[in-house]
Amino acid sequence: MAANLVKVFEGGWVPLSLGALSMIVMWTWVRGCDLLAKKTHRDFIPTADLIRMLEKSQADPRARHRRFPDRRSQCRASALMHNLKHNKVLHERVVIMNVVTKPTPRVAEANRFEIEKLSHDFMRVTLFFGYMESPRVPAAMALMRKCGVKFDIMTTSFFLGKRTLKCSPASGMPQWQDKLYVGLSKQATNATDFFSIPSDRVVELGAQVTI
Fold first, then answer.
1. Which residues pair with 13 in a beta bridge?
2. Most buried residue, 13, 133, 158, 192, by CB count within 10 Å?
3. How many other CB atoms sit within 10 Å of the CB of residue 62?
């Protein structure tokens, strides 16, 4: 190590700088995602409590299927709440869809999905994919249909929550790291493309969130 330290000043600083830059980017992404998850989790309520609240509400039902993809299986989908807040509509059948990436390369089709009936109008579907698989939601839904789950994808709308991140002095990260994380989040893949959802069946409901 002592012998190689001499080479740092003769050009060895270049790979060391690139490695440090990569580490800073990865550290910022992990730290930012963790802070954002903790902050948004504080605003969520358990799904069971949400259903009880909605059953007592005066929202008007509509006879079409709605799916609200969400990664938080124990908490309400943000797209669902935005739809209720702005449109004042609770559809006849609501499916909260949760996509989980397993720590295995692939998941067998027999273990692709789990269905949990939450109430008469609410259902939670959890889709499982391996880390080497592309999370194609329509393909998983086609498999569900073969197994007896009745739905028509042409009359099903997918409500996606889209967050626009803004920096905050109280984020817990330095200002430069806030800006870096916001910049990285803008480069993330669009959820519609990532989950291979038909674009003409997607409704995006946006919200501004401070880190």
1. none
2. 158
3. 13
